[in-house]
Model the fold of this input.
Amino acid sequence: MTFKPIFFLLLVVICQYSNAQSIDTTNVVAEDTVQYWTSGSSFSLNIQQVGLTNWAAGGESSIAIGGVLEGFSDYEREEVVWENKARVGYGVIRNGDNSNRFEKTDDAVLLSSKYSQKFSEVILMTAALNFRTQLDEGFKIEKADNRRVLISDFMAPGYLQASLGLTYRPMPNVNATVAPFTGRFTFVLNDSLSTVGSFGVQAGESIRSEAGISVTGSYKVTLMKNVELNTTYNFFSNYEKFPNTVVNIEGGLDLKVNDFIQSRIRTQLIYDDDVKVTRSDGTRGRDIQLKNVITVGFILRF
Done:
């Protein structure tokens, strides 16, 4: 497993920079201090271990570990709104004894920055950058001969989306942005994957660029005490292939036990017409990609 520290450093920089605050003084003797920055970060760790020895009912021992480091830093003053988010998640599992390999169960690097200028409290002009990749190599196990085939790697793929459009924000935790000026760049920097044209790039090329329209947004609501629902979505359509649309929807349910223990349910759905996947029956083609993750573990907020 290859460790790529650069995105952890970016996350630390964002979180540290968010400690800045603006102070507005008037001619009155007492100073009025206003906090324009809001920020926060957290680290969660989940561990699962199953040990079986001479177990008559059968089964297999396993050990799994996963962690998520995430943070945000937002600035709002008068007509300006600037929102920054980062998330790095990684998890592995090993079934059987020590002779077996650890395999990935989670691997994601997400960075986003969105700068907006208010027309009103509800309508904003927004310029945004979104970046997504992974930290480590990904493999598909061929059932016929149990062979491990490389299907992804760091920056293979990597996605960068830059957009300019209008945001509708009826309330602080609900927003939707329509951006008719959107550029989407797909990176495949692994030679073996770019040679075969993985993730929609031309065979032998490492970068693919597209121009189109995007619709992005998020929704966050507290359903009841200690239960919070978070949803984000990103739809992109290339003008040359309109209305074919790249779909990326993430939903999460956070169940807080106390300040240090939390359960999380995460679901992600992706559909990309340019990406061919290997299905569970061994066939390849375009299909819906679906990931479900349920964890219970420790969380530290700072």
